Amino acid sequence: VSYMVGKDRIIFATKEDHETPSSAELVADDPDDPYEEQGLILPNGDINWNCPCLGGMASGPCGEQFKSAFSCFHYSTEEIKGSDCVDQFRAMQECMQKYPDLYPQEDENEEKEKTSKDLEATPMEASAAKEETGSS
Fold first, then answer.
1. Where in the cell is it found (predicted)?
2. Crossing angle (nearest 10°) for helices 86-97 and 63-75
3. How distant, in Å, are the alpha carbons of 113, 121, 135 from that of 126?
4. CB distance 113 to 87 below 8 Å
5. C-alpha dihedral sign at 124, 125, 128, 134
6. Dist. CA 58–CA 64, nearest whole Å
7. What is the pLDDT of residue 103?
């Protein structure tokens, strides 16, 4: 049994589901990729740009800007880490804004409008409910 809640799908597993052996097949990792299982930071302290945890950010159209900003932050020795990287992060942000489909931005104005519309709707529903109960 499953149903959608917003963007998430909720799936309920039965006792039988847990007792049935999985039919999922594990695909062998590429033995030629030495970085696949290293994590974000390699043992020598370098950044692993092939880490799946980066979600492709290092290879997209803004990959160079991302690498520049992330490298700057990673190697920053400032008191407030990364405070010397403002220009790199600004360049990355400007690049990402050119590709809204690839890099969705949380639009603060849109969120505020949605919240205010929700708040406007609530008192109207509440007052309509009072009128109905008052008329009986």
1. Mitochondrion intermembrane space
2. 160
3. 20, 9, 15
4. no
5. negative
6. 7
7. 85
Separation of alpha carbons 11 and 22, rounded Å: 16
In the chain, which stretches have pLDDT less than 50? 26-32, 35, 136
Rg of the chain over Cα atoms, rounded to whole angstroms, equals 25
Question: The tokens 């008052």 sit on which residue?
Answer: 134
Tokens of 92: 């990355």
Q: Is 23 helix (H, G, I), strand (E, B) or coil?
A: coil
Residue in 2, 4, 25 with CA at minimum distance from that of residue 12: 2
Q: What integer pLDDT is reported at residue 88 of this predicted model?
A: 96
Q: What is the pLDDT of residue 85?
A: 96
Q: Which amino acid is at 70?
A: F
Q: Give pTM, 2 decimals.
A: 0.51
Burial profile 15-35: b = 16 or more Cβ within 10 angstroms, e = fewer: eeeeeeeeeeeeeeeeeeeee
Phi and psi (nearest 5°) for 107? -85, 110
Return the amino acid letter for 43.
P
